Amino acid sequence: MNPPEEYINNFQDQYQDINKSNNNSNVPAINSLDKVRDILVGNQMREVEKKFTRLEERLVKESANVRDEAKKRLDALETYIKKEIESLTEQLRIEQLERDAIVKILAEEQKSVASSLEKKVTQFNEQTTNSQRDLREQILNQSKNLQDEIRQKYEEILVLLEREAKELRRDQTDRSHLAALFSELAIRLNYDTKS
Q1: Which of 8, 34, 38, 183 lies in disulfide reach of 42, CB 3.0 to 4.6 Å?
Q2: How far apart, in whole angstroms, are the C-alpha atoms of residue 1 and residue 67?
């Protein structure tokens, strides 16, 4: 309650208490009380009521302005948030597409690298097989050449040994011939010394 109304209500309560104590004898006294009250505080009450009315209108107007302003700001905030969400969603979609493209590129590169590696391994195996075959052929050729050289040297050594053996035999026959000569000479010398 407002203070002037409170004052008036208190005044009325006291007046009614007085009237009750007088056994509610006269109704015109209540009317006169209203007149007294109107004379005492009537102008002030009207001014207070006008002030309250203006204050109430101002509060209603201000609350409507605040509500409108809040609605505008909330609408602007909602629009901003929607735009931000749409922007973030679009950005995420673009990033996802870029990641998908990068993953595809990496997968293709990985396939390419795997294929290239497989080809290189196959080439290396072929080269190794060819190298081993060439090496075996070279070893075989060298062993044949070495066997041929050994056989040739063996034959040359045999020829040399046969030649040497013939020379030794010839030299041996010359020795036996020489020994026979020496024997004969010894016999003659012996015979000469006795005669």
Answers
A1: 38
A2: 27
H or E element, residue 9: helix 3-21
Contact 37, 8 (CB under 8 A): yes
What is the pLDDT averaged over residues 130-147?
Answer: 90
What b/e string do you get for 26-59 counting C-beta neighbours within 10 Å, with b at 16 or more? eeeeeeebeeeeeeebeeebeebeeeeeeeeeee
DSSP 27: S
Digit-coded pLDDT (tens) for 72-92: 999 999 999 999 999 999 999
What is the spatial distance between Cα 8 and Cα 42, in angstroms, rounded to a whole number?
10
The residue with tokens 């060439």 is 134
The tens digit of pLDDT for each residue in 110-121 reads 999 999 999 999
Q: What is the per-residue pLDDT for 192? A: 72
